[in-house]
């Protein structure tokens, strides 16, 4: 999300960890049902055009895509700042409800500043909904944060079959409740979460990962094929690198850090991870180098040094922080027909 070197910020609040009483839910994720996937849909944006854009894989090739809708955006925000970044496509387990969610932020707006964007930025996410991936509602701005939050960045969501709801995550920094204008010093950026069944009403936002010494943004999960088994990718904003943690105990289980970072290069941000549709156990990871996504892959996501650059000579240029969704044949045909290249 950041283009600028991080400013060292001083934490007002102690680090908060998830109380053990919250350890119960073990969301089972989007990819637990036996589906045959025939391709990939990348939902993304670009710096010059902060609106939702689709790239569809050529067949089931994770490295080769066509820019749908003749390169024009498929969804534009008419709410909030009217610009969106950090696009995430969520859907329920039955693939009957789709939600496109995004950061409400237009960095090209007149008078834009990162300082203002993190003190009095949007406390909502932009949401579009659909039942078929091609007919979409108008954009709506849904407040997910409390009044003491400075912004809401990079939303993502995980569907939980057991409770028929989404867990929604994003990053925020928080101001003291006495600092109603947010002019003082905030906490470090941390990962926050809520739950929702419909992206209309949301539970009260809470901390998910908050560290005393490290500002964190851009979290994304990868389901690892077995109930409760996930990887999560997080950006350390001090070094502008992404690290990985894994669990076998669900989203609120015990997470184990893989030492170091998934890649030695900096900057890297905006992780988008997806399982390969063809090769079992192969995972892909897109990391934004502040210009565009660079594709990596691993067959052992939790192991240090296993994320290698993918040799994809035709990988599209200019993709920014987004998400990659495996598609069924019905979904693939629908988007290809509705948004021809
Ligand atoms: C983030 O990077 C800083 C600087 O190297 C380091 O001190 C800190 O421990 C790192 N935090 C995490 C969670 O990796």
Automatic annotation (TrEMBL):
The keyword Hydrolase applies. It comes from Aureobasidium namibiae CBS 147.97. Keywords: Hydrolase, Signal. The keyword Hydrolase applies. GO terms for molecular function: hydrolase activity. This is Family 43 glycoside hydrolase. Residues 1-23 form the signal peptide. It comes from the Eukaryota. Coiled coil: none annotated.
